[in-house]
Every structure is written in C-alpha cells, then in structure tokens.
Design brief:
The complex is a heterodimer of chains A (113) and B (116). Chain A has 113 residues and is mainly beta. Chain A has strands spanning 4-5, 10-14, 19-25, 32-38, 45-51, 56-58, 62-67, 72-77, 86-92, 102-103, 107-112. In chain A, strands 2, 4, 5, 9, 10 and 11 form a 6-stranded mixed β-sheet that branches. The radius of gyration of chain A is 13 Å and the shape is globular. The termini of chain A are far apart. By secondary structure, chain B is mostly beta strands. Chain B has strands at 4-7, 10-13, 19-25, 32-38, 44-51, 57-58, 67-73, 76-81, 90-97, 105-107, 111-115. In chain B, the strands form 2 sheets. In chain B, strands 2, 4, 5, 6, 9, 10 and 11 form a 7-stranded mixed β-sheet that branches. In chain B, strands 1-3-8-7 form a 4-stranded antiparallel β-sheet, with no helix packed on it. In chain B, a hairpin with a 5-residue loop joins strand 4 and strand 5. Chain B is globular. Classes of the chains: A mainly beta (113), B mainly beta (116). Chain A binds chain B through residues 32, 34, 36, 41-46, 49, 89, 98-106, and chain B through 1, 4, 6, 32, 34, 36, 42-46, 49, 51, 57, 91, 93, 95, 97, 103-110, 112.
Chain lengths: 113, 116
C-alpha cells in the first residue's frame, strides 16, 4: 500500500544554520507533494509544494527537492530561526486526483538560539 | 491563505456518548474535505475523504458506523464519533480543499477529544 516515511525523527540545529528534512515515499505514481509545519496543538500549516514534473521549487527561505528516481523528497530551510521549531511532515496525494492526502511520519525540528 | 474553522477545539465526553465535530470553510467552497486523527507524537492518519453531496470514502480500518461523516454543504463537514470510548481520545483534524484546479488543502486548528 501507499506509505510516506521520514528518515529522522528529530533534528537539532543552531539558529542561523541551514536545516534539511528528508522524506521517502513508496508510491511511484504520486504526482503532488506538500510540506507542512505543525506547531504543538495546532493544525498543519502549508509550507511549500511540488509537482512530480519538477525536481526543485523555491520559496521564501525554503526549498523543496524531489528525486523521483529514488522516491525521495527533502525540505531545506535556510538560516533556521527559533520560530521554525515545529514538527514537519511531508504529504502526498498519490495519483488520486487529490482524493487522498497521506502524511509521512514527521520530523521534529529543534532550533537552539 | 483560506480559513478553515474547526469546532469545538476541545471536548470532554463520557464513555458511551456521541460527539460531533464541525469543520467549516469560511471564505471558500470546499469540494473535498479530509478528516484525520493524530495521536501524541505521531503523524496524521487519514480517516476519510468526503466530497460534497456524496458519501465519504473511508480508509481501511476506519469504522464508518463509528465515525460518521457528513458533507452536506460546500462549507461544512461534520464528524460524529458515536458511542465514544477512551481509546477514541485523540486530536482530530479536518482539512478542506477548494475546487478541482486548486491543489492546496487548508487545515483546521484541530479538536482535542478526551473520553472519560
């Protein structure tokens, strides 16, 4: 079945460092991927998305990379700030026409001042 | 971004009773809504997908008679946890998506359900 998983459960970085959060997915037919940030007790917040016809997309301080060959997704956060501390999830819609949105395991990012 | 409002944010109920959670899209029409359950320090587990005016599609292992989902309008979906038990205690989150071309899903703030 479909699954989306992450390599690292917790990532600790210093303020100002760059952070890289990784995600592996198993459904090779997935055509749309999204990264979300979730703070404690709140719902997920959209960060950035990427379609399967792209391998890189940049936003403000964030970059998502997609490697379809190895079914790997990563989120890069530049100049990480304490406010970036949260749990980050990758999610994918498979090839369902967005009739499903499946979340990965999650990585907790801890940013020290 | 668009706003999705979930109500209540917290609820405590007695075992055996039913609880209804509402999910509203405040400034857009949500053709598709997703319902998730999240246990502490775990990921969001998709429970079901609902499209306005049609029956919800439940994920494997989710009891449709226990978790009743209604998506009667383009701005409101409800999840009713029937005959709740302590093991149903969890964080329930809804997400709404607008239209066919809009690919962004917006999330509610979640509902913390505690069954005592």
């Amino acid at each position: 079945g479909e699954s989306v998983g992450l390599h690292l459960p917790t990532l600790s970085v210093q303020e100002g460092d760059n952070s890289i959060i990784n995600c592996a997915y198993s459904n090779s037919a997935s055509d749309y991927f999204i990264w979300y940030k979730q703070e404690s007790g709140k719902g997920p917040q959209f960060i950035i998305d990427i379609r399967s016809n792209m391998d890189k997309r940049q936003g403000q301080r964030v970059t998502v990379l997609l490697n379809k060959t190895v079914k790997h997704l990563s989120l890069q956060i530049a100049a990480t700030q304490p406010g970036d501390s949260a749990v980050y999830f990758c999610a994918e819609t498979g090839n369902t026409g967005f009739q499903k949105l499946v979340f990965g395991t999650g990585t907790r990012l801890l940013v020290s001042p | 971004g668009a706003v999705v409002s979930q109500h209540p944010s917290r609820v405590i109920c007695k075992s055996g009773t039913s609880v209804k959670i509402e999910c509203r899209s405040l400034d857009f029409q949500a053709t598709t809504m997703f319902w998730y359950r999240q246990f502490p320090k775990q990921s969001l587990m998709l429970m079901a997908t609902s499209n306005e005016g049609s029956k919800a599609t439940y994920e494997q292992g989710v009891e449709k008679d226990k978790f009743l989902i209604n998506h009667a309008s383009l701005t409101l979906s409800t999840l009713t946890v029937t005959s709740a038990h302590p093991e149903d205690s969890s964080f329930y989150i809804c997400s709404a998506r607008a239209g066919v071309t809009n690919t962004e899903a917006f999330f509610g703030q979640g509902t913390r359900l505690t069954v005592v």
